[in-house]
Design brief:
CATH superfamily: Fungal kinase associated-1 domain
Number of helices: 3
Structural class: alpha+beta
Radius of gyration: 16 Å
Number of strands: 7
Oligomer: single chain
CATH architecture: 2-Layer Sandwich
């Protein structure tokens, strides 16, 4: 019975944030998505999980970084785990059951775009919640003039 419960818990849980995040800097990449349909990421090469990176209106600086950080932390259910210039690690908790979803933002080397990743910890399928969260984040940044839409490029 214990083995069955362990197996089921492993089956219904996903990964958390990026596995090997260095203590400082932004010289790394966000993890891709697991085979479960509970993730969206701009670093994924699999079309089921792929979203576009967030294109910034101007290269990243301290001012627009603070706006980006505030935009994420003001979203419903957000709890900031780690923040440093160019990298954010946030946990979102769902309203009803308080399930955790992991959300990361990492500036790309060009300082002109952001990689984003959002993944549910629990479940095989997220009903598109993580993709919508990324798109809401993108739209908030566009509304604030920090990011530009893909149509504007």
């Amino acid at each position: 019975m214990r083995f069955t419960l362990l197996l089921l818990s492993l089956l219904f849980t996903g990964c958390a944030s990026t596995f090997n995040v260095p203590d400082s800097g932004t010289d790394f990449t966000l993890d891709g998505c697991t085979p479960l349909l509970n993730c969206a990421s701009s670093t994924s090469s699999v079309f089921l999980y792929q979203v576009d990176p967030v294109q910034l209106a101007e290269p990243l600086d301290e001012s627009n970084w603070e706006t980006i950080k505030t935009t994420v932390t003001d979203m419903p259910g957000a709890s900031l785990n780690e923040a440093r210039f160019g990298y954010l690690d946030v946990t979102f908790y769902t309203v009803v059951f308080h399930f955790p979803d992991f959300f990361e933002v990492l500036v790309r080397e060009d300082q002109q775009s952001l990689d984003v990743r959002s993944q549910s910890l629990i479940g095989l399928y997220d009903l598109g919640v993580n993709r919508r969260r990324i798109e809401i984040f993108r739209q908030h940044l566009i509304d604030k003039g920090i990011a530009v839409s893909g149509d504007a490029e």
